[in-house]
Design goal:
Elements: E1 15-17, E2 31-33, H1 34-83, H2 89-95, H3 98-101, H4 106-111, E3 115-122, E4 129-136, E5 146-153, E6 159-163, H5 174-184, H6 205-210, H7 219-228, H8 232-236, H9 238-286, H10 290-310
């Protein structure tokens, strides 16, 4: 088949159908000229090289993360030993975190006063998952010393989770109390009950701990792992930081007020000086000149002499 010609008689580039599936399904229904086809194939080759390097970089990054996880581990352990010297460190950090505090019921907060240690442990293969360990002193709520929630990232890409079975003591099952309260209030998050410090939420801390319905969107676990665990001191000190910032703002405010007062005083002094100057100018303008006064007296004397001489 001969190449078609344009209106000016010049031949147009011949077109071929792209059949290389590596560029996507849409390419099956498109036709490109030879030059474009060659460029697309070259781009595909480059893209394969880029993808290969990205995959290799991911493997290298994973090795680096594993290396530094091991280097950080003794410091995490040392930090945990020091934290044990501070009463209610972890429950304070939780209460000061906006997302965690939002799901804490009053009795759950009391229970977490017995939390002595928190530990986030990533698996050797970081991409396979992690576990969160909560260590408790003897308490009136349950007999477990450690409560663990694990997250596993399977080969299918869909994460799964599992947690320790809580051995509640008689009359202190906080999960059951929460669910009963939800039923009484019709499950409404806007409802509130006597003795609650905030409206009931649709979930609580221990309800989160035992919930495995959607591990892929577990925001609480992510907050504990990626926000609180790396630097819990930040959340423990939040009120102190806010107070310090408030003091700085107060100091700035006082300084600003003093500056404004100084400026006002200076302006008043300038106004008084201007008024005094204006008053002096008015007095000068209203007072007769001494020379004029003497000239007038001499004229009056001459007039009197002239009158006497005529007489």
């Amino acid at each position: 088949m001969s190449a078609s010609k344009s209106s000016d008689g010049a031949p147009q580039p011949s077109k071929i159908r792209k059949v290389d599936a590596s560029l996507g399904e849409d390419s099956f229904s498109r036709e490109y000229d030879v030059a474009t086809q060659k460029a697309l194939e070259d781009i595909d080759v480059c893209q394969n090289e880029i993808d290969h390097l990205i995959e290799k970089a991911s493997e290298e990054i994973l090795k680096v993360e594993q290396k530094y996880n091991q280097l950080r581990k003794p410091f995490f352990e040392k930090r945990s030993d020091i934290i044990k010297k501070i009463p209610n460190f972890w429950v304070t950090s939780f209460v000061n975190h906006p997302l965690i505090s939002n799901i804490l019921e009053e009795e759950e907060e009391e229970c977490l006063h017995h939390l002595t240690k928190l530990d986030v442990e990533e698996f050797d293969d970081i991409k396979s998952g992690y576990r969160i360990n909560f260590y408790f002193d003897s308490n009136p709520y349950f007999s477990n010393n450690v409560l663990t929630k694990e997250f596993h990232l399977g080969s299918s890409g869909d994460p799964t989770s599992q947690s320790t079975n809580i051995k509640w003591k008689e009359g202190h099952n906080l999960l059951r109390k929460f669910e009963e309260q939800q039923q009484k209030n019709g499950g409404s998050s806007a409802s509130s009950s006597r003795g609650k410090k905030r409206p009931l939420e649709t979930r609580s801390f221990f309800r989160w701990f035992t919930d495995h319905s959607d591990p892929s969107s577990d925001d609480i676990a992510e907050v504990i792992k990626d926000d609180i665990w790396p630097n819990p001191l930040h959340y423990f000190l939040v009120p102190d930081i806010e107070v310090e910032n408030g003091d700085d703002e107060d100091d700035d405010g006082e300084d600003g007020e003093e500056e404004e007062e100084d400026i006002e005083e200076e302006e008043e002094e300038e106004d008084d000086e201007e008024e005094e100057e204006d008053g002096e100018e008015e007095e000068d303008a209203g007072a007769p000149d001494q020379g004029d006064q003497d000239t007038g007296k001499e004229a009056e004397a001459d007039a009197a002499k002239s009158a006497v001489s005529k007489t």
